[in-house]
Structure formats: structure tokens, C-alpha cells
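Quick note —
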Amino acid sequence: MDNFYARAVFFVSDVERARRYYTEQLGCSADWDSNDGVFQVGLFGFELILNASGEHTRARIGHGRVFIGLEGDQADTLRKHFAARDVRGTRVEWGRPTLLIKDPDGNELFFWFPNDEFSELLQ
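Predicted structure written out below.
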């Protein structure tokens, strides 16, 4: 069996604000846009779909969480990428020290760095 092609979906309150945050602040690529409130961004192979909330999904805004585990040189590449954009997060415990970055709606990106090497990215 082939591997599934899976992506997380975060619901957002303002599509244009989310687009600016993910592409301009985090430095994600704009992969595709359906032009009806759904678009995808990517960063070093990680892909995320962002979806405008509607009447039936309003309560889902800000409740997304995705985990990204990094290995070896992946961590150094991402650390340099975020440092160049002045991206800052907070340290939380989630099985081990974890870098937490929240988008403007409160959706969470959890990053595990090898050896917990992310102190320069803390707020």
C-alpha cells in the first residue's frame, strides 16, 4: 500500500490575515488557493491547509494543533529560517521541551528540536 498524502486543516477567522502571517511572517510558500476561503501553505515539506470559518465551523477557530518533529540538519535549517524572520515562540512541555508557535487565531504549531536546541527562538 502507498503512503497516504495527509495534511492538517486549521480554521481561521480572517483568510487574508492568515495568508499574510503564514507567508510573510513564517516564510511559507503559497501552494494553492481555491479562491473560496481555502488555501494551502508549505514549509520544507510540511503542508497545511487553512480554511475560512463559516457558520458551522466558527467554534473550531483556534483549536488546531500540528506536531512537527525535526531531526539533525532539519532543526538547524528551520532555526536559521525562523531567526532570519524574527519568529518567536514559547517553550512548553509536551513529552519533552517543545517550541510552540501560535498563529493569529491561536492554532498551534508544535516543534520538537533534537536536544531541545531552540532557546534563541523564545519570546
